[in-house]
């Protein structure tokens, strides 16, 4: 009794099941041999695919001078990747050319197949993905030198009724409030008169204690009393007992008194008290160091 071979009429066909990149398999329903995974298939073709689902790269372009870090799925096709990069780079997907550079700046490869997956290229975290578009000039979107700007002269601005200045003037705000400005000027004048009056009680050589809000008290000796070039009003120059100052008695190239560096300082008279303020004992003597 002869045996009849059982078979499938017509050409045998392979069926492909769509899974994740790492699970994509090619199946053969006519045999029981192990299925060939997508990874094995592409490795046999000489292509290496990373198992990580995402890759983090630095995206640069000729259309934009600033690079940005982005993460992409390795399962994206190059065409889909270009579509995502349009908003990032300013380049058009249809004319975009992508090149991969390593961490050392050397060219790795070009993404030249729109149907290929990103994961089929040797792209790793930290690499640079550079987009070029021959239809766009470099820095076309970041160069503002050619942008037409709205310019207005001072006279034209003063005539406008919708400006901030016009609003303040109508509502008597800031320097346009004459009464408020006069009040501030009167307060400043009274404050300066008090500073001047107190400064007249100081003499060069007086021991003093300086108390500036927010700073520890410091003792020293009055070395200068009078006007200065660095700020208006009366100032007191002090040589401190310890290097807690800001200068050596000179400010802006002009010398008012002489002392060691970091021992000199200038304060307003209201922060200075003169009297019996000997140098502070730091608690050190010959028997204790």
Automatic annotation (TrEMBL):
A GO CC term assigned to this protein in UniProt: nucleus
CDD domains from the UniProt entry: Ubl_TBCB
Recorded GO MF terms: alpha-tubulin binding; microtubule plus-end binding
SUPFAM superfamilies xrefs: Cap-Gly domain, Ubiquitin-like
Database matches in SMART domains: CAP_GLY (SM01052)
Listed Gene3D superfamilies: CAP Gly-rich-like domain, Phosphatidylinositol 3-kinase Catalytic Subunit, Chain A, domain 1
UniProt-listed Pfam families: CAP_GLY (PF01302), Ubiquitin_2 (PF14560)
Xref: InterPro entries: CAP-Gly_dom_sf, CAP-Gly_domain, TBCB_Ubl, Ubiquitin-like_dom, Ubiquitin-like_domsf
Domain called CAP-Gly: residue spans: 226-268
Example of a GO biological process term: tubulin complex assembly
Family matches, as PANTHER family: DYNACTIN 1-RELATED MICROTUBULE-BINDING, TUBULIN-FOLDING COFACTOR B
Family: Belongs to the TBCB family.
Entry protein name: CAP-Gly domain-containing protein
Species of the source: Elysia crispata
């Amino acid at each position: 009794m002869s045996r009849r071979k059982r078979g499938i009429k017509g050409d045998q066909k392979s069926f492909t099941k769509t899974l994740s990149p790492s699970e994509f398999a090619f199946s053969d329903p006519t045999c029981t041999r192990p299925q060939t995974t997508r990874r094995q298939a592409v490795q046999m073709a000489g292509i290496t695919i990373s198992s990580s689902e995402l890759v983090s790269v630095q995206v640069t372009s000729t259309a934009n001078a600033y690079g940005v870090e982005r993460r992409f799925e390795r399962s994206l096709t190059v065409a889909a990747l270009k579509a995502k990069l349009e908003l990032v780079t300013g380049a058009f997907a249809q004319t975009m050319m992508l090149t991969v550079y390593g961490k050392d700046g050397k060219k790795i490869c070009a993404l030249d197949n729109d149907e290929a997956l990103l994961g089929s290229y040797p792209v790793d975290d930290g690499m640079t993905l550079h987009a070029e578009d021959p239809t766009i000039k470099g820095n076309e979107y970041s160069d503002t030198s050619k942008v037409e700007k709205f310019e207005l002269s001072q006279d034209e601005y003063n005539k406008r009724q919708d400006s901030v200045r016009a609003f303040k003037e109508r509502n008597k705000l800031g320097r346009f409030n004459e009464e408020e400005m006069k009040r501030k000027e009167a307060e400043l004048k009274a404050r300066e008169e008090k500073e001047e009056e107190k400064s007249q009680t100081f003499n060069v050589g007086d021991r003093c204690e300086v108390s500036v809000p927010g700073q520890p008290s410091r003792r020293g000796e009055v070395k200068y009393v009078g006007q200065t070039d660095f700020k208006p009003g009366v100032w007191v120059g002090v040589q401190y007992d310890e290097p807690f100052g800001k200068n050596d008695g000179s400010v802006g190239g002009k010398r008012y008194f002489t002392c060691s560096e970091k021992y000199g300082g200038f304060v307003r008279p209201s922060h200075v008290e003169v009297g019996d303020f000997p140098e502070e004992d730091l608690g050190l003597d010959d028997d204790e160091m």
